[in-house]
Amino acid sequence: DAGVIQSPRHEVTEMGQEVTLRCKPISGHNSLFWYRQTMMRGLELLIYFNNNVPIDDSGMPEDRFSAKMPNASFSTLKIQPSEPRDSAVYFCASSWDRIQPQHFGDGTRLSIL
Amino acid sequence: DQQVKQNSPSLSVQEGRISILNCDYTNSMFDYFLWYKKYPAEGPTFLISISSIKDKNEDGRFTVFLNKSAKHLSLHIVPSQPGDSAVYFCAAITGNQFYFGTGTSLTVIP
Predict the structure, then answer these.
(1) Which terminus in chain B has less CB density within 10 A, N or C?
(2) Which residues of A sit within 8 Å Cβ distance of B?
(3) What confidence tens digit (pLDDT) does each residue in B39-93 have?
């Protein structure tokens, strides 16, 4: 049974470039989450989808960040334009519903130079 | 502001002894709490959870205690094993809000 799949695993790009992170949730899960992990703030929820609909995006830092879930098996997190302070590990997670344990992907380590 | 806090960044314990990881929270509306374990270069994995209507939940070597009056959550691992060495995150849920602590790095010394 495949877990949550994220791509790429690592991304290094220059400031100002567009960055797209991808996530394939576990089949059958109807909740999907994007997190950002930094040393200072730990894991922060960026956005939460339920049945492909964004339920809460209050954690999205600013308009440079956007997330989509066009269908139940795919989601993207886009940063445009990227800035050095966006450097972090970004995790995608999915679950059966909001209180069920979340299954995390292995993350994308993003470095903006 | 951090609604879920893990004030100890690291903890070292001898193999076979008890590991106690602590978590404090500020929001009395949290209705569900979870602990996750994370190894380097991997995503967090679920360990154990507890509903706010309970004060204890046990699963093998892992027990989670909830003290609502103190707004305090703890994870006990007995006996600790070297394979338990990882970063442990507590998490809390209310409505559509999900909060994680900053993590505690546990090292179990053989």
Answers:
(1) N
(2) 4, 33, 35, 40-45, 48, 55-56, 91, 93, 98-99, 101-107
(3) 998 999 999 999 999 999 999 999 999 999 999 999 999 999 999 999 999 999 9
Distance CA A50, CA A96 (A): 10
End-to-end Cα, chain B, rounded Å? 37
* Identity of the amino acid at A77: L
* Per-residue tokens: A52: 């492909």
Location of structure tokens 């344990």: A101
Average model confidence (pLDDT) for chain A?
94
Q: How far is CA A21 from the centre of its chain?
A: 7
- Select from B32, B49, B100 the Cβ nearest to the Cβ of A42: B100
First to last CA, chain A: 36
Contacts of B11 (CB under 8 A, 6+ apart): B19, B21, B104, B105, B106, B107
Amino acid symbol at A23: C
Report how far residue B103's alpha carbon sits from residue A25's, in angstroms, rounded to the nearest whole number: 24
The pair of structure tokens assigned to B38 is 């994370």
- Write the burial class of residue A19 (CB in 10 Å: 0-12 exposed, 13-18 middle, 19+ buried): buried
Distance CA B50, CA B46 (A): 12
pLDDT in tens, A33-55: 999 998 888 889 999 999 999 99
CA distance B29 to A55: 19
